[in-house]
Amino acid sequence: MKISEIYAILDSIAPFDLQESWDNSGLIIGSMSDEFDSVTLSLDLDSSLIAQAKPRTLFITHHPLIFKGLKSINSSEYPANLIKEMIKKDISLISMHTNYDKMVLNKFVLSEILGYKNYEQDGEFILKFEVNKSFEEFVVDIKSKLNLATIRVVKGCDFIKTAALCTGSGSELISNLKADCFLSGDFKYHTALQSYENSLSLIDINHFESERYFGESLALNLQKFKVFATITNSINPFEYR
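RESULT FIELD:
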């Protein structure tokens, strides 16, 4: 199968031209005319995944390995160290980032992982849904369903009538949010303090943990086109002790 063929399938699932202007989704390494033998889905790439990969593997990741133009290639440092080995093994890479967030990932996590089937779109990245639970009960529910060993929260109110979700890192979207609680990752201290003072509860569902379902969700979509892939995940650079 040629990369151009699977690229067209991916574009039908989450059109690449929906990505944000700063994003770099699309074909990162390889050529549209290249052929591949197998497909592997992962949130990111790391040295272990590349070392284990067979030649002529096509990786499809959520996060682009290259976000900005590289001015030099130092093969002893990331990401050039991975790029060097990928070229040696004829490994290709396509990334689906903000276009996939908008079209698939947020909806999949909310409906299939957290179990909230009824929601409404609030902007391109935020989904709002009804909760009607105490804050404490809601936190326990989210922690359990996402299988989180620890969880950071800001208790801005005692009862959660409505909540909003953005997987990954969505703290910059808080300013116009109309909900009792916001679920996302990478919340900073000043964002937490501001939310507390404004009676907005926060549940930090972590960046890796909230987006690790990328492979699972994409595999289900690819199966509709008779394309079957291996699901894996890169390492989570954070450890919790």
